[in-house]
User: What shape does this take?
Amino acid sequence: MIQTRTEHDFLGSLEIPADVYWGIHTQRAINNFPMSGQKVNQRLIRALAMVKKASCLANAENGYLVPDKAKALAAACEEIIAGKLADQFPVDALQGGAGTSTNMNLNEVLANRAIELLGGNIGDYTIVHPLEDVNLHQSTNDVYPTAIKVAGTLALRELAQVIAPLQGAFQEKEKAFGEIVKLGRTEWQEAVPITLGAEFSAFAEAFSRDRWRTFKCEERLRVVNLGGTAVGTGLTAPRNYIFAVIEKLRDVTGLGLSRGDNIMGETANADAYVEVSGILKAHAVNLIKIACDLRLMNLLGEIHLPQLQAGSSIMPGKVNPVLAEAAIQTGMKVIANDGIITDCAARGTLQINEFLPLLAQALLESLDLLINIDTLWIKYIKDIVADQKICGQYFDHSPMIITALLPAIGYERATQLITEFSASSEKNMRLFLEQKVGKEIVDKYLSPYQLTALGYKDNG
Assistant: This one.
């Protein structure tokens, strides 16, 4: 038989498993929101523990918490920040109440763990109280959005750090493939000649922009409303606490956070998350586009993507570009999450946004997905192999390579030569051109350097 303890609130009483750290408010949320099966993102839990620690330290410094209680509470915060007690946060990510259930869950777990550290029994809130001590001078409406911004900022830094080596992997291929001439393609048709290295340089440049945007957009999350309590006015919080708590949060997180000039505005509006999500969407778009290009180049045989697993239960030997497909699906999910974040931000009402739980889940999920796929892609890109022979075959047999010779022979002469080539039995355009205009001219204008130089040098 499961041992239980009884806890009370103004709605009545509930039986709670005796060995858990959560209390009646968490238990009500467990009962009320058995919806998605997804728990609150652990990044948000850890960030909220950072906010709680900052509040504890600010309250202790100003004499609102006695030292032994503050020490135990800070130690409990540190445990959660370190990833301990993760199983004590069972509330569904999709919850009503603007994050109150998650805030209550933290308050109760921290209180009970602090009680235990002080030698008391779980549930004896005369020692440490979830609301009167842990939540002192706070509201869900200031600590919860602040925690989202802390979690988001830390994740953005992590994402920027994995985009950098991904960009580097493409730059390595840019150098390795620099001498391989191939056909460019536009609108699914053969186009002007290029090099495979130049093609990969375009991929690297896209991720360079993503890296910079991701690094810069954390600035949008550094302005927080901590100390504003319910609606941003700081009602029920002493002024010395309000000024101290942001300083403590900077110390705890190591982030350059600042309190908003208009805390009511920071509390009521969630547009900063939309802006950041837009940056994540841009990265997702680049992932999808480049993954699609890599799949097509793999199909054409110009490159060989790493073979990771059997691709069919019926076709022996078939291998699919699974990690490229995973990147496409990741990008699609991030784009869908951007729509969710946008809608959540738009639907906030008057002084707060009651849809922050869904917004937080979508934002942090997008960050987790992008961090994970980028990490997987670093080795994936490094292991791509070029097929210079196939690239050369497409190149040599395409009439479009004549475009590179226009500075030497002109448009009319080029058109005439294409007509002649089409009517001849020759299938190799390069050999045909060598016969018609000379090997020296062909080699010069179809060299990797000439194909990728910015324009041509006019000696006239």
